[in-house]
């Protein structure tokens, strides 16, 4: 394919090369070939044009944490629908957690996800393999073979790694393959039976709470084990002020720890649970307004490396029930940008380049993934969005099969216009004309 | 049907105002007398279909509601759903829709999940009365406790009431805390810290670590039932120690040298949270609570069905009260 695409006149923001300027981006044969103010002039006649005036042109977003449910729960999401939802949310690549059924804990299972993703022809999907066989927390899964088949990290997400010894071993063994060990930090005896954050709200609502310490105890354990082993621990979906303090402590000491926060933990507090709204039920739970403030601040000051969605589709019926019995999790791929813009960029907590760092550059860097840059010669994985556009969240319009969103009906700011993977427009309508 | 002064449902005491609570208590007064008659029946709710939907076993509350309904001439149907309907696979939302399809007027529901009553109320047009949802609220129990206290002390304003025991898992405690606070009483809790919500101090209550101090402070103790499974779940070391450290005993009351009214929502574990000679003693109003329970439930049924409070006195005599 020698056909070329010109993204004309957008604000090109690429923190990987310190770029923030109005420019054209020329894509040819799936690669970024030129960025500059007057690229259009030398582009030739075979160029298709996307008018990006007034829009931000960014390296494609990368989500290091989502649940695509295939194999096992194809009724709530498939790799294809998840990859299309990702594209609609501006993600050019997502990492799929291994808590599938059966668990993605071997090379064949990893290979299946890779193949399904190729068929989907939407966002790229990178499998994450399980830490332990069947996520049982007992026996290490075959990291080497899984990496060989395409796994980019290991995690038992959805479940904590209860055994400190297993976590230590995983961190050591993962070093051989240069992959992060992503942990779901939850001390199970403290969190058992919990349905929301522990505090005044849970006391009033008569729901069993999950104390902040259930997360923090495991966070510091993992940080200390990373210190001991030199392995790279990645802390999933951090949600408390205490965790932020512990991560900061670890980073100050040069410990190889990275951390993510989810859009819902920088935007919503436990107040959203009022009325027993199961679309506000997730794990870790929505915390206090003070925790939310701490998470925003941690995104700003760099304690939190990346924003990841923890996209977790569930069937409508599963959420339409008593709060304590409803499953945890919300869909997030198609609202992530808007939530981040609305609660981080609009109030001036971070600027657009920092947002792009958290959603694209840093995820690529810490998970050693391609992408996260618009450097000449790199694959043209590009997201074009309007940081000022308002839209109202209508879950029935999601590409995801999941409808479980606490943002339903809210008007948010920040909308994806185009998503390009390898130079192909996988989301968005081409409004520009060939010339 | 026009909404009554309480709105469509009674889900808890937290959403009610002090005036609404006072209205229920005042409305219960004339209904007390009906239960003292030879023929304990008035036609106030004639033709009203009420489903008593109990997903958890209950004797006292279910029977109390049933009497209240029958004495108002409603047509109650008891459904003991227990956990078997869950294993049959029907969801609460389907249960709700089926009830609604039968064109019922009210549902009285006891359910093991906090928020279940609200869940139901949001999905059906019938009035919903929460007869206990998980560890959230048990509003009619809270109301009958308030009525019993008001009977003895004339006013709840400034009254000192201590809830003793397992506040953490108690829907009765939550309804009492809301109801008493809204009526101007002072509320304290006393029990093992492992059975108090961690955030209890943010709920505007005083905390006593020692039952002796609670007895010395309170005008009334509402002694909560200690669920025996709390011990196996590791919240407390033993029932024996619980009684020795936190039990409301004759000796402790004597030592305080003052009269403290004793309430208990039942069923009691005699010799655990409360000693028999206290439960059966002169300051116990435990059976008055049960009697008041019927009057409170009649008042709630009446007000939710659109009954006008000023007509409650007339309603108990005959026709005019019900707005249906």
Describe the fold and architecture.
Chain A has 435 residues and is an alpha/beta fold. Chain A folds into two domains: 4-57 and 379-427, Urease, subunit C, domain 1 (Roll), CATH 2.30.40; 60-366, Metal-dependent hydrolases (TIM Barrel), CATH 3.20.20.140. Helices cover 29% and strands 23% of the residues of chain A. Chain A has helices at 79-88, 107-120, 143-149, 164-175, 188-191, 200-205, 212-229, 241-252, 289-301, 316-319, 336-345, 352-366; strands at 4-14, 19-28, 31-36, 47-51, 56-59, 61-66, 91-96, 124-129, 153-155, 181-183, 196-197, 209-210, 233-235, 257-261, 306-307, 382-392, 411-421, 424-427. In chain A, β17 (411-421) and β18 (424-427) form a beta hairpin. In chain A, α2 (107-120) runs parallel beside α3. The radius of gyration of chain A is 21 Å and the shape is globular. Mean pLDDT of chain A is 96; it is low at 431-435. Chain B has two domains: 18-137 and 293-317, Rossmann fold (3-Layer(aba) Sandwich); 139-288, 3-Layer(aba) Sandwich (Rossmann fold), CATH 3.40.50.1370. Chain B contains 14 helices and nine strands. Chain B has helices at residues 18-32, 60-71, 84-88, 92-101, 116-121, 139-153, 171-182, 211-217, 229-232, 239-246, 250-256, 276-279, 286-304, 312-317, and strands spanning 49-54, 75-80, 106-111, 127-133, 160-164, 186-190, 206-208, 220-223, 261-263. In chain B, strands 7-6-5-8-9 form a five-stranded parallel beta sheet. A four-stranded parallel beta sheet of chain B has the order 2-1-3-4. In chain B, α2 (60-71) links the parallel β1 (49-54) and β2. In chain B, α1 (18-32) crosses α13 (286-304), α2 crosses α13 (286-304) and α6 (139-153) packs across α7. The model of chain B is unreliable at 319-324 (pLDDT under 50). Chain A binds chain B through residues 198-200, 202-209, 211, 275-276, 317, 320-325, and chain B through 14, 91-93, 111, 113-116, 118-119, 133-137, 171, 174, 197-200, 202-203.
């Amino acid at each position: 394919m020698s056909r070329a695409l010109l993204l004309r006149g957008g604000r090109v923001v690429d923190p990987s090369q310190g770029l923030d300027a109005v420019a054209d981006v020329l894509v040819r044969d799936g690669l970024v070939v030129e960025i500059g103010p007057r690229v259009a002039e030398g582009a030739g006649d075979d160029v298709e044009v996307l008018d990006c005036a007034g829009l931000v042109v960014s390296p494609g977003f990368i989500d290091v944490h989502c649940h695509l449910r295939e194999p096992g729960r194809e009724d709530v999401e498939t790799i294809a629908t998840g990859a299309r939802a990702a594209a609609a949310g501006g993600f050019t690549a997502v990492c799929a957690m291994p808590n599938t059924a059966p668990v993605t804990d071997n090379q064949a299972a990893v290979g299946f996800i890779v193949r399904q993703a190729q068929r989907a022809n939407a966002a790229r999907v990178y499998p994450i393999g399980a830490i332990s066989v069947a996520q049982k927390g007992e026996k290490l899964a075959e990291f080497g073979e899984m990496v060989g088949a395409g796994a980019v990290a290991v995690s038992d997400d959805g479940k904590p790694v209860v055994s400190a010894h297993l976590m230590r071993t995983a961190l050591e063994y993962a070093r051989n393959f240069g992959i992060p060990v992503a942990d779901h930090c939850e001390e199970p005896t403290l969190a058992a039976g919990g349905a929301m954050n522990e505090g005044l709200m849970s006391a009033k609502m008569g729901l069993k709470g999950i104390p902040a310490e259930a997360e923090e105890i495991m966070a510091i354990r993992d940080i200390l084990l990373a210190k001991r082993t030199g392995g790279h621990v990645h802390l999933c979906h951090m949600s408390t002020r205490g965790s932020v303090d512990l991560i900061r402590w670890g980073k100050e000491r040069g410990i190889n720890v990275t951390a993510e926060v989810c859009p819902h933990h920088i935007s919503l507090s436990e107040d959203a649970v009022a009325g027993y709204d199961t679309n506000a039920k997730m794990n870790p739970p929505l915390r206090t307004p003070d925790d939310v403030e701490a998470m925003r601040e941690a995104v700003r000051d760099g304690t939190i490396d990346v924003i990841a969605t923890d996209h977790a589709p569930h069937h409508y019926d599963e959420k339409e029930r008593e709060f304590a019995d409803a499953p945890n999790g919300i869909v997030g791929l198609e609202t992530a940008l808007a939530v981040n813009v609305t609660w981080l960029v609009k109030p001036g907590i971070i600027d657009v380049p920092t947002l792009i760092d958290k959603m694209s550059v840093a995820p690529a860097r810490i998970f050693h993934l391609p992408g996260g840059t618009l450097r000449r010669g790199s694959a043209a994985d590009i997201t074009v969005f309007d940081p000022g556009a308002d839209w109202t969240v209508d879950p029935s319009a999601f590409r995801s099969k999941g409808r479980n969103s606490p943002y339903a009906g809210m008007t948010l700011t920040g909308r994806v216009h185009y998503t390009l993977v390898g130079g192909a427009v996988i989301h968005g309508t081409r409004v520009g004309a060939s010339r | 049907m026009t909404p009554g002064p309480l709105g469509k449902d009674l889900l808890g005491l937290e959403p009610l105002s002090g005036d609404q609570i006072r209205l229920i208590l005042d409305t219960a007064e004339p209904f007390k007398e009906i239960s003292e008659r030879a023929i304990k029946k008035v036609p106030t709710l004639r033709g009203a279909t009420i489903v008593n939907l109990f997903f958890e076993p209950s004797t006292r509350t279910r029977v109390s509601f049933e009497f209240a309904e029958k004495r108002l001439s409603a047509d109650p149907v008891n459904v003991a759903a227990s956990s078997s309907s869950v294993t049959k696979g029907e969801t609460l939302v389907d249960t709700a829709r089926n009830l609604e399809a039968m064109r019922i007027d009210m549902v009285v529901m006891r359910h093991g999940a906090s928020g279940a009553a609200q869940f139901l109320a949001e999905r059906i047009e019938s009035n919903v009365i929460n007869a206990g949802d998980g560890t959230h609220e048990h509003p009619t129990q809270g109301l009958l406790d308030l009525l019993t206290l008001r009977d003895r002390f004339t006013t709840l304003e400034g009254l000192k009431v201590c809830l003793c025991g397992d506040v953490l898992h108690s829907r009765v405690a939550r309804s009492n805390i809301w109801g008493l606070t809204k009526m101007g009483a002072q509320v304290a809790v006393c029990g093992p810290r492992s059975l108090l919500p961690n955030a209890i101090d943010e709920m505007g209550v005083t905390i006593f670590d020692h039952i002796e101090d609670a007895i010395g402070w309170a005008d009334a103790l509402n002694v909560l039932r200690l669920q025996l499974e709390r011990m196996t779940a590791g919240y407390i070391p033993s029932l024996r120690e619980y009684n020795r450290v936190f039990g409301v005993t004759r000796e402790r009351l004597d030592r305080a040298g003052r009269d403290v009214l004793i309430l208990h929502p039942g069923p009691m574990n005699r010799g655990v949270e409360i000693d028999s000679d206290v439960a059966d003693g002169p300051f116990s109003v435990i059976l008055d609570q049960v009697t008041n329970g019927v009057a409170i439930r009649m008042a709630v049924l009446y007000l939710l069905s659109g009954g006008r409070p000023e007509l409650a006195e007339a309603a108990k005599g005959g026709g005019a009260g019900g707005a249906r």
